Amino acid sequence: MSLLTVGSVAFDALETPFGKTDKIIGGAATYITLSASYFTKANNLVAVVGDDFPQSMIDIFKDHGINTEGLEIRQGEKTFFWSGKYHNDMNSRDTVEVQLNVMGDFNPVIPDAYQNCEYLMLGNTAPAVQRMVIERLTTRPKLIVLDTMNLWIDIANDDLKSLLPLVDVLVLNDEEARMLTGDYALVRAAATIRAMGPKTVIIKKGEHGALLFQDEHIFYAPALPLAEVFDPTGAGDTFAGGFIGYLAKTGDLSFDNMKRAVIYGSAMASFCVEKFGAERMLNLSQDEIYDRVKQFVRLSAFSVEL
C-alpha cells in the first residue's frame, strides 16, 4: 500500500568514538524511505535539496524503489547540512554546525501521483511544514505518523500541539515526551499526549528499547544488545521507516500488528547503528532482516509455570 514520506534529505558530518566522516548523506526522510523500502514498493518521497546533491544518491533512492518525483532540486542553492559529535556513551551528542540552506523555507509540493496515499510519514520538520502536507492532500490517509523533536517542543510548542489532533501516531523519545507534558513518568506522559489527539504514542528510549501506547494497552520492545555501535545517527528515523513500512505492507492497524511493526522498526534501527550514516541500510537482504527479527523474538521469549 502506498506510503508518502516528507522530511529532510541532507548532508551530515559525524564524529563518534569510532571515527569521523566528511560530508555523507543523511536527513530524516533518507533514513525513513530507505528503511521502508524493504517492506513497500509504493514508497514516495517529498523533500528539497540543492544542486550540490549528488545524482548518484538519487539513483540509489530509485534503485530502492523510492519515487523521487517529489524531490525538489533547487538550482544555485545548497542542501541542508548538520554536523555533530557524539560523546563516549553514544547517547548524547553536541551539534557542531547547522546550515539550513534549502530547508530554511521548505515549501512541500505534493505531486498528483502522490495524492490518495494510504500512509503518511511526517519526518522531523517544523510543525508548520508538517501541517502544510496534511492540508495539501486531497484525501486523508489511512494512517498519519508524526515525528518531532525537542527543538519544536521548545520554539513551536503551540504549533505542535495544534497539529496533534490531526495525526494518528506520535513518535518521540523519552526526553521529548517529558518535555512536552512536564511529567517524568512515561506512562502518564503517554496518556497526556494521547489526550492531545494521537490515538497511539511511541516513546523511543534509545539503547533501552521503545514503548508503544494505545488505549489501555502498553507494549515494550527491547533494543538489541550490540557489541559495537558505530553511529546512532538516523536510528530513530530508521525505526520509524521500518514501523510504517511494515504497516503499509500488511495493511493491518490493529494493536497486535503495531507491536510487530515496532519489532521490525527496532530491527531496522539495529542495522543502522552498525555503520556510519545510511551505509548499512543500502544493501540489506530479506534473510538478514528476518534473522534479526528472530533475535528480537528470542530476546523477549520466556516460559513460566504458575
From TrEMBL:
<dbReference type="GO" id="GO:0005829">
    <property type="term" value="C:cytosol"/>
</dbReference>
<keyword id="KW-0418">Kinase</keyword>
<feature type="domain" description="Carbohydrate kinase PfkB">
    <location>
        <begin position="21"/>
        <end position="280"/>
    </location>
</feature>
<dbReference type="InterPro" id="IPR011611">
    <property type="entry name" value="PfkB_dom"/>
</dbReference>
<protein>
    <submittedName>
        <fullName>Sugar kinase</fullName>
    </submittedName>
</protein>
<dbReference type="InterPro" id="IPR029056">
    <property type="entry name" value="Ribokinase-like"/>
</dbReference>
<dbReference type="GO" id="GO:0016301">
    <property type="term" value="F:kinase activity"/>
</dbReference>
<dbReference type="Pfam" id="PF00294">
    <property type="entry name" value="PfkB"/>
</dbReference>
<keyword id="KW-0808">Transferase</keyword>
<dbReference type="InterPro" id="IPR002173">
    <property type="entry name" value="Carboh/pur_kinase_PfkB_CS"/>
</dbReference>
